[in-house]
Design a protein that fits this description.
homodimer, alpha+beta, oxygen-dependent coproporphyrinogen oxidase, seven-stranded antiparallel beta sheet, two-stranded antiparallel sheet, 27% strand, globular
Chain lengths: 296, 296
Amino acid sequence: MNVSKTAAIYKDIQQTICSTLEKADGTGKFSLDVWEKEIGSGLTRVMQNGSIIEKAGVNFSHVTGDFNENMAHLLGEKASKFEATGISSILHSGNPFVPTIHMNVRHFELDNGSSWFGGGIDLTPMYVNPEEARWFHQTLKDICDKYDTSLYPVWKNWADDYFYIEHRHETRGIGGIFFDRVAVNSNSDYEKMLSLTTDLAHAYPVIYAELMKNNGHRSFTEAEKHWQKIRRGRYVEFNLIYDRGTKFGLESDGNTESILVSLPAEVEWVYQHQPAPESAEAKTLELLKKGIEWIS
Amino acid sequence: MNVSKTAAIYKDIQQTICSTLEKADGTGKFSLDVWEKEIGSGLTRVMQNGSIIEKAGVNFSHVTGDFNENMAHLLGEKASKFEATGISSILHSGNPFVPTIHMNVRHFELDNGSSWFGGGIDLTPMYVNPEEARWFHQTLKDICDKYDTSLYPVWKNWADDYFYIEHRHETRGIGGIFFDRVAVNSNSDYEKMLSLTTDLAHAYPVIYAELMKNNGHRSFTEAEKHWQKIRRGRYVEFNLIYDRGTKFGLESDGNTESILVSLPAEVEWVYQHQPAPESAEAKTLELLKKGIEWIS
């Protein structure tokens, strides 16, 4: 079982992520909460009301427990114990021109010998900037290509499918990459996936620092702020209705405050809100679709 | 099959509810949207930005369709067609001293002969006023007692259990009554449940008018408004994670905007928000528990 080794590395990266983000924000500081429950323990780091970052949660956890029937059904595996570790993070800016971003890396093992990694990074701009979207996807592709050029196309489509808000017929944002159940059958498999997930986790705050630098100083109108709050409503809908991590966390009696720190601060729901035709908001809606190839 | 008869009556009551609420609010007006989908049709009436009511949805629907496997599993019934009608409503005030209220009445029939009613009214104050809570429960009890004095105690507990936010270990509000699958086996059963549900639906705007009259003029601080937005976050969590009506609606490709008009306008999530000890907010939290007997 390698999860403990992975956990030690992920725990260090959590700290690096937070210090990089603090530097990029300038004034915001991460608090640290340690939680311990029957299922395991975690470190929740939260920044609220920074100069660009309005609310950020960077969670590390390392848990172990009985592999119950629910999990067995969900995962199609037979086992009696599981062990898992991961970093999970969402960053929200107060500036509508700075996107919301999400990153997760995780390593899961069962005592029947099964072991796998999952994770990804995806971006949710309130105003899609196609140039930035291409750069974001290219950055992810470059990381994937270092390991295997067949990964990006598959994981990019997986993100399109996963981050889809069925009842709105729209994607959560412009996607990114998403992968799950990448099996570890040998030591070299393990080293590869550990390296790939740590590359992703390291790239995450660097990507966001760039997005903050490009957009964090931009002034915005009340109408643009209002649009941001409405789009955040969609984010909440996705996280509470569809997101498997949130569901699994809440159902397994995880740490509610750590799980729901992912939700944005100020949110708004307006009945039948429709952006004006040809507006920047309408153009963004047109780009919240599956299957857009940002990199040609 | 009596659903069409019920539907005609419910449709009229929807209008009465809206006109009573418009009168009580003074300035707000309900819009009307008619929707038609493969599954059936509905009338969605919405008020936004009234003088006391900030956002109100009063939905009527009458739907019919194939009884699919999902429903069969959920309801433990075998049938090939279903028909259903109902009124579903949630009212949010901009004033933190005016509670949020929810009402639903519904009649469901299958082509295997099964027929039942469900519904209820429940109240979610941001600041629990025990005297008002007693009056609210007494009003519901009086309606139930007209039909059968055994109903209120059972339906009151049912509301406590149903409107429970498991991951927060708190109830959504001070409850009320909730009932489901009340079987209709004879014409007198039907007349009784039709009458009881229409009594409830008629009482609903009258109850709210009273709460608006008592509290709608009260001034409030920014801190009280902030607390209201945080409490609304819990309401959103309940509706998106647990509420069966919302789930059923979104999964059956119902009318998304009509279903989610139930969500409050402005909402806020703050990491680990804790009210000050002994504050009015802390006292409210202490009353968000199952099993409080408001009427002794």
